[in-house]
Design goal:
The protein has nine helices and five strands. A hairpin with a 7-residue loop joins strand 4 and strand 5. By secondary structure, it is mainly α. 63% of the residues lie in helices and 10% in strands. It is globular. The strands form two sheets. A three-stranded antiparallel β-sheet has the order 3-5-4. A two-stranded antiparallel ribbon has the order 1-2.
């Protein structure tokens, strides 16, 4: 009897912690919270979380083919639409600096594809490649001054460290070991790609293409 009560309590505590994270606006993926991610991949646990959230007009939303979870609204009224509109505006303001950063990382790292959840970024190696290439240094200086990052420094070391610090604060990167300059991309980046695709398809902004074209032009 005691063991059963303890087991039930563990499930409730775990579910409560997941609900709290979702309501705080966290994006739960394997990189940010593997236990929470596994729990939400479990049908019965997700049903319990969903049942609670539904009582307060929330729902478990997902991106990246079900590998990233976040909190959405179950039904949209006027007040909910205002909140979503404000959130979407914030995302749109961050898109250009984020896309420019992603393109810079991809180009400087020589990768064929943009960062996705679980991919490591070695800050020291990336910084060396950026500092060795004038076009990359110029791109870093430009994007670091966007309001999203807010750098006022002319030093590339200070610029890149501030950018990475902000990306951790914003939930796009995690730094598993503070003793090492290795960062891991989170599922929030994959969510961002879906937002970009949505905007491209509905408004024809082609943000990714614009940012990549600008970077390629700088390299010529």
């Amino acid at each position: 009897m005691s063991a059963m009560n303890e087991s039930n309590q563990t499930v409730l505590v775990g579910t409560g912690a997941i609900i709290e994270l979702l309501l705080k606006g966290e994006f739960i993926c394997r990189t940010t919270n593997e236990d929470g991610w596994r729990a939400l991949k479990n049908h019965s646990t997700r049903e319990r979380v969903e049942a609670y959230l539904n009582q307060i007009n929330r729902t478990v939303a997902s991106a990246a083919e079900g590998d990233v979870f976040f909190c959405g609204y179950l039904q949209l009224g006027e007040s909910e639409r205002k909140v979503i509109s404000s959130q979407f505006k914030d995302i749109c303001q961050a898109l250009i600096p984020m896309v420019e950063w992603l393109v810079l990382v991809q180009e400087a790292s020589g990768q064929d594809a943009p960062l996705s959840e679980g991919a490591p970024v070695r800050l020291t190696e990336l910084q060396s490649r950026i500092e060795d290439t004038p076009a990359f240094r110029e791109q870093l200086a430009k994007l670091s001054q966007y309001r999203l990052f807010g750098s006022t420094s002319t030093n590339s070391d200070a610029q890149i460290k501030l950018v990475f610090k902000r990306l951790v604060e914003l939930g796009y990167l995690v730094r598993p070991n503070v003793e090492k300059q290795i960062y891991i991309a989170t599922g929030k980046l994959d969510y961002l790609y879906e937002v970009i695709r949505f905007i491209d398809e509905t408004e024809g902004l082609s943000l990714e293409a614009q940012a990549e074209t600008a970077t390629q032009r700088d390299l010529l």
